[in-house]
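Fold sample X.
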Amino acid sequence: MLELLAKREGKIVSREELLQHFWGISDTAETRTIDVLISKIRKKLNNHYIKTKRGFGYYFEENET
């Protein structure tokens, strides 16, 4: 998941798009799965790089502003 976000640096990737890409499903009821996984990745990265665009999804940002 981190690799996909990093390859699309600066571009927002929706929860639904991540579900479809990794699990082949688009059930919006399962989007909490993505939130949990993003949370775990953030912990490993000390909360750097992965940003949230509320209501849209997640994006990777290498340079902190």
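Fold sample Y, listed below.
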Amino acid sequence: MSANDIRPIVKLRSTANTGYTYVTRKNRRNNPDRLVLRKYDPIVRRHVEFREDR
């Protein structure tokens, strides 16, 4: 199993429907389900939830 299988690159899309995205890596062993992070969206100028987009 390579490092790319364990830590894939995922795209986090804003739930504020602005189309703004972050790109990050996640550990599949620790987080097998979809990732949800609260991050800053500069378009709406506030922190919103970003959900993993596949």
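Sample Y note: The mean pLDDT is 93.
Also: The chain has one domain: 3-53.
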